[in-house]
């Protein structure tokens, strides 16, 4: 069993407790407008072209039989729709402007990397975080990787949007120590419009995790113009009040890293306003004034 | 006191003393010379309003020093002459036309005399033709070579505890007794006693100065301080020190007189004085901090070179008191934000006082690069194995300069040779001929052919390594031999185990452990190159060895695709098996080649240090393109680190790679970590990272906490970043004051 892996990032310090290795799996059923990792949406490999590294040597044009690469007025144009993912242009590119996103890996291969940093995990609650994409849509891969980790007593964590089937989730529940639960949107019409999914599915997943007494940190991306609203903040507040066992709530301010990454794979990502430092402080104040000290800025 | 009516008066008297005692016992001759050097070198206080300790020195142009920088920028030792400065000064005197010809002739004769008689020249004269070939030239900045000699006795760590236990008088009494017990060593003992009397004389000179200053002083507060200084000077002249002030004052004068810049484990040897003074209510903690600040200031200003002040660690007599005083030292470090000497270094161990560790991390977080962290949990065992000494001895390991390990008061760790390993590989690939100059420097190990195996290449490289390691070993022994013939290093011998007891000077068999180090450069450039050869030429068979040689000769011009393949081969620093295994093999190759000099020579140990200053830049400049894909004249790898920006798998992977290199076969390696200010703010996670590194066997870290954007901006607007501090390797510097190539090298290091 294999999945496409975008990256196995060692020494992650923002994806759960301690020092962690984060596994980014490729493929997600949602289409969040602000997606921070657009390269994680497709379940297939993808060609990526970074314009700033291109030296216009045209080596890619020479080796490509599909005419993906063309140079018009000195400008390198990439027609992603024609690409058959043969990888020849990546091999030929001397400046690393071209790369292939997604490497097919087995859980065992990923685990071999995860295991390398055991000594760092042991310094204080660290371990593995499986992220994505939507990790729970790679359930068999996750299950095998999680089981391997548990055999080695490595702390496990899954980051999820909750947009997954509960019966799938149940397979991995016993092997997960912590969930990072992304709470993005709080009403159905917005869910359809901004993330391309239904809230009822997401809520069911949340309840399943919570009722199984799993440790959970709520992560809330705050996107000005989308969910920086009283209604959404009240919804977060309600969750925090109703689920006292949540071990933390993190607010993740919008950033636009996804825009360039999206452009590199030929996919346009919408841009939103950056929240100012004052805005961020206001968010935190809001929660603290309402007595929810566990809400923090990530 | 230093006072010259005309230039060269001191030097002439020193020379006369030397000449009059040419045939005397070398210890007596040294003493007679020091008599004309030590009291005459002391200057009046730098800052009459503020200085807390007496002791300012004016180096002579000709004199006796363990380490002495000439204006040719090369070090000298024992009987030294700064020839360039002498000639310039003489020329100026001639031009001025006010000096009688007889006096000028006297100076000319003196310079000619020392041109032949100085210790470096005497050492050089003794080089065998084989050593002449292996040691290319003295000037590592300008000459192209694989192995360079260094003429210096660096890193003397004096036994301050012994000094305090006896005091000057007590030491003299001890020596008087020894003359009776061991009459055959009488000249040495008498010379030692005479030299100690010179230090008493220095104390008296400063007592006299204090009297003048007190009589002129308007401020009551300052008068009290001057009175304290006077009292301390009077006391230490005749008895052992009783207070913290007296102890530091005595040590200052001893260090300056000997030319010793290493402060060593001051928390261990000063803490009892501190605790007693506090208990007696004679000082406050703030006053102690001020004293340490002033002491550090003197050491920095009087010796403009790298030096260490060490706190923490195993083997301190009164750990609790030492930790308290170590906290005082950290306060003093913080109070001097733009000073880099002495380089305060913390000996860490897992069960240490966490206040000390946390306070150290607080200071590091401010981008100070200090304290440098050393891991005792690893180092003590490593030193035991590397130097083959007991645990008790290993617990007293210390380090100096850029980080060479030695045993405080028991060994000398001075490096006397530098090896550019990337050049050694270049010679291997070119049958012993340096491709840049066409000169034969190495051994003829054969031309590269396309039918040879990778192991053949490894074997030939090791043969060249062994050859230069042997040269370094022979040269080291020669330096010690000549130092022994010429001198007794009296002041150092008094405070070095076990010279007094044995009745022998340091290099005559007095020292307990005759050690030494060899600096190596480009270690990782070599192992990455070997890995590229292995993977690209032998495994992937993309081209042959002879093709590779053509590419290197062409500096990859016209071979860009091949260069890319070489660059894409595995690199050290990513926890990749093959690259790291080759780094381990290369590391063991050089370390053992140097370590086995113990069998070839009378040394108790000779060990590699992978310490690095900015010499990886200079040596890179003298090295052609290398098989790792590096272009000619570009900097080499620094210390034990991954080549710049080749560490792509994160800091945990880098830490794992670094800790694969055996720490128990060398005398220190630098691990440079460049942390972003953002990451370092995550204190808990930083502690976990460092904890993991130490648990893996990490022995040391140089930590720079910088903002990469600040570094980039500092290249464009240096005026806005005067205080941006970075760790180069073995030393710390203001980024804007570094040369352009070193700035680029630091910028190109991965920031985590």
Provide the descriptors you would attach to this structure in a database record.
heterodimer; A: 298 residues; alpha/beta; TIM Barrel; Alpha-Beta Plaits; 2 domains; nine-stranded mixed beta sheet; two-stranded antiparallel ribbon; 11 helices; globular; B: 752 residues; five-stranded mixed beta sheet; 19 strands
Average residue pLDDT of chain B: 95
Which architecture of the largest domain in chain B per CATH?
Alpha-Beta Barrel
* CATH architecture type of the largest domain in chain A: Alpha-Beta Barrel
Which CATH top level class of the largest domain in chain A fits? Answer: Alpha Beta
| The CATH fourth-level homologous superfamily of the largest domain in chain A | Aldolase class I
Structural class of chain A: alpha/beta
GO molecular function, one term (chain B): lyase activity
Protein name (chain B): Pyruvate-formate lyase
Domain PFL (chain B): 1-631
Organism (chain B): Paenibacillus aquistagni
Topology:
The complex is a heterodimer of chains A (298) and B (752).
Chain A: E1 3-12, E2 20-25, E3 46-49, H1 59-63, E4 69-72, E5 75-78, H2 88-92, E6 98-101, E7 103-105, H3 107-115, H4 118-121, E8 127-131, H5 139-151, E9 155-160, H6 166-172, E10 178-182, H7 188-195, H8 199-211, E11 215-222, H9 230-242, E12 248-253, H10 257-264, H11 277-289, E13 295-297
Parallel strand pairs in A: 2-8, 8-9, 9-10, 10-11, 11-12, 12-13
Antiparallel strand pairs in A: 1-2, 1-7, 3-6, 4-5
Helix pairs in contact in A: 3-5, 5-6
Chain B: H1 9-20, H2 26-41, E1 42-43, E2 56-57, E3 62-69, E4 75-81, H3 83-96, H4 101-117, H5 119-125, H6 129-134, E5 147-149, H7 160-181, H8 186-216, H9 220-238, H10 244-258, E6 264-265, H11 266-280, H12 285-302, E7 308-312, H13 319-334, E8 343-348, H14 354-365, E9 372-375, H15 376-387, H16 391-394, E10 397-400, E11 404-407, E12 415-420, H17 421-429, H18 454-486, H19 490-494, H20 499-502, E13 517-521, H21 523-539, H22 545-553, H23 560-568, H24 577-595, H25 597-600, E14 607-610, H26 615-621, H27 651-658, E15 666-669, E16 672-676, H28 677-681, H29 683-696, E17 700-706, H30 708-716, E18 725-727, E19 732-734, H31 740-747
Parallel strand pairs in B: 6-7, 7-8, 8-9, 12-13, 13-14, 14-15, 16-17
Antiparallel strand pairs in B: 1-2, 3-4, 5-12, 9-17, 10-11, 18-19
């Amino acid at each position: 069993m294999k999945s496409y892996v975008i990256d196995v990032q060692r020494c992650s310090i923002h994806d759960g407790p301690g020092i962690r290795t984060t596994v980014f799996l490729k493929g997600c059923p949602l289409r969040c407008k602000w997606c921070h990792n657009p390269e994680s949406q497709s379940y297939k490999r993808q060609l990526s072209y970074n314009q700033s590294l291109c030296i216009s040597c045209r080596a890619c044009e020479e080796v490509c039989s599909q005419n993906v690469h063309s140079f018009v007025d000195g400008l390198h144009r990439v027609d992603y729709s024609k690409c058959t993912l043969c990888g020849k242009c990546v091999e030929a590119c001397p400046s690393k402007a071209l790369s292939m996103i997604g490497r097919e890996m087995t859980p065992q291969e990923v685990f071999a990397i995860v295991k390398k940093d055991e000594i760092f995990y042991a310094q204080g609650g660290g371990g593995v975080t499986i992220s994505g994409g939507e990790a729970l849509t790679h359930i068999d891969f996750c299950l095998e990787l999680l089981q391997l980790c548990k055999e080695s007593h490595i702390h496990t964590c899954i980051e999820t949007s909750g947009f997954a089937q509960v019966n799938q989730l149940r397979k991995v529940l016993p092997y997960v120590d912590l969930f990072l639960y992304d709470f993005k949107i709080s009403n159905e019409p917005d869910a359809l419009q901004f993330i391309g999914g239904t809230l009822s599915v997401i809520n069911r997943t949340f309840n399943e995790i919570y009722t199984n007494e799993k440790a959970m940190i709520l992560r809330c991306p705050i996107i000005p113009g989308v969910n920086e609203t009283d209604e959404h903040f009240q919804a977060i507040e309600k969750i925090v009040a109703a689920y006292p066992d949540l071990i933390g709530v993190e607010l993740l301010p919008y950033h636009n890293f996804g825009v360039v990454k999206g452009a590199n794979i030929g996919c346009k990502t919408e841009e939103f306003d950056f929240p100012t430092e004052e805005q961020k402080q206001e968010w935190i104040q809001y929660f603290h004034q309402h007595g929810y000290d566990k809400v923090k800025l990530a | 006191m230093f006072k010259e009516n005309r230039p060269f008066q001191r030097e002439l008297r020193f020379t006369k003393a030397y000449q009059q005692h040419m045939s005397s016992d070398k210890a007596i001759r040294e003493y007679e010379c020091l008599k004309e050097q030590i009291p005459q070198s002391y200057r009046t206080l730098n800052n009459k309003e503020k200085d807390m300790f007496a002791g300012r020195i004016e180096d002579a142009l000709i004199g006796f020093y363990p380490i002495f920088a000439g204006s040719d920028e090369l070090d000298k030792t024992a009987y030294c002459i700064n020839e360039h400065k002498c000639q310039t000064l003489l020329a100026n005197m001639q031009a001025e036309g006010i000096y009688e010809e007889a006096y000028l002739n006297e100076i000319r004769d003196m310079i000619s005399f020392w041109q032949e008689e100085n210790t470096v020249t005497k050492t050089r004269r003794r080089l065998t033709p084989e050593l002449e070939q292996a040691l290319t030239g003295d000037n590592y900045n300008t000459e192209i070579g694989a192995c360079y000699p260094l003429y210096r006795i660096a890193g003397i760590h004096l036994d301050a505890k012994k000094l305090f236990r006896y005091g000057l008088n007590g030491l003299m009494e001890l020596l008087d007794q020894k003359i009776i017990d061991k009459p055959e060593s009488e000249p040495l003992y008498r010379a030692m006693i005479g030299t100690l009397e010179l230090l008493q004389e220095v104390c008296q000179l400063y007592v006299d100065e204090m009297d003048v200053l007190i009589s002129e002083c308007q401020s009551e507060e300052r008068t009290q301080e001057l009175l304290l200084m006077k009292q301390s000077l009077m006391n230490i002249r005749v008895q052992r020190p009783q207070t913290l002030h007296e102890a530091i004052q005595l040590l200052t004068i001893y260090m300056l007189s000997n030319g010793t810049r290493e402060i060593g484990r001051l928390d261990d040897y000063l803490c009892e004085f501190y605790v007693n003074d506090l208990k007696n209510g004679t000082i406050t903690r703030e006053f102690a901090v001020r004293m340490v600040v002033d002491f550090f200031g003197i050491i920095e200003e009087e010796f403009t070179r790298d030096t260490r002040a060490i706190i923490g660690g195993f083997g301190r007599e009164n750990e609790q008191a030492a930790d308290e005083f170590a906290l005082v030292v950290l306060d003093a470090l913080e109070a001097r934000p733009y000073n880099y000497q002495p380089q305060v270094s913390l000996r860490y161990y897992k069960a240490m006082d966490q206040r000390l560790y946390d306070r150290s991390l607080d200071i590091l977080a401010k981008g100070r690069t200090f304290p440098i962290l050393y891991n005792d949990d690893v180092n003590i065992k490593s030193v035991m194995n590397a130097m083959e000494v007991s645990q008790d001895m290993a617990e007293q390991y210390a380090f100096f300069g850029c980080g060479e390990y030695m045993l405080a008061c028991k060994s000398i760790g001075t490096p006397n040779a530098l090896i550019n390993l990337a050049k050694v590989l270049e010679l291997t690939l070119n049958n012993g001929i340096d491709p840049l100059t066409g000169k034969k420097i190495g051994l003829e190990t054969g031309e590269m052919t396309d039918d040879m195996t990778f192991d053949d290449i490894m074997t030939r490289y090791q043969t060249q390594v062994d050859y230069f390691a042997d040269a370094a070993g022979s040269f080291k022994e020669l330096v010690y031999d000549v130092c022994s013939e010429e001198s007794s290093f009296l002041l150092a011998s008094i405070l070095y185990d076990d010279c007094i007891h044995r009745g022998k000077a340091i290099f005559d068999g007095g020292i307990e452990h005759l050690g030494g180090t060899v600096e190596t450069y480009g270690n990782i450039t070599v192992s990455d190159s070997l890995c590229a050869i292995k993977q690209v030429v032998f495994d992937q068979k993309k081209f042959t060895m002879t093709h590779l040689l053509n590419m290197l000769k062409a500096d990859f011009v016209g071979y860009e695709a091949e260069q890319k393949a070489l660059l894409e081969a595995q690199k050290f620093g990513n926890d990749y098996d093959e690259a790291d295994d080759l780094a381990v093999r290369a590391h063991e190759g050089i370390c053992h080649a140097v370590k086995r000099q113990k069998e070839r020579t009378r040394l108790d140990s000779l060990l590699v240090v992978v310490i690095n200053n900015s010499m990886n830049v200079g040596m890179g400049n003298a090295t052609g393109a290398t098989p790792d894909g590096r272009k000619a004249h570009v900097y080499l790898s620094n210390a034990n680190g991954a080549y710049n920006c080749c560490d792509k798998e994160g800091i945990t992977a880098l830490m794992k790679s670094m800790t694969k290199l055996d720490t128990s076969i060398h005398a220190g390696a630098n691990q440079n970590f460049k942390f972003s200010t953002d990451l370092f703010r995550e204190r808990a996670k930083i502690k976990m990272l460092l904890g993991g590194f130490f648990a893996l066997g990490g022995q040391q870290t140089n930590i720079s906490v910088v903002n990469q954007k600040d570094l980039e901006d500092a290249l464009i607007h240096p005026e806005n970043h005067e205080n941006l501090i970075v760790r180069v390797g073995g030393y710390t510097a203001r980024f804007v004051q570094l040369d352009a190539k070193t700035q680029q090298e630091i910028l190109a290091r991965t920031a985590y």
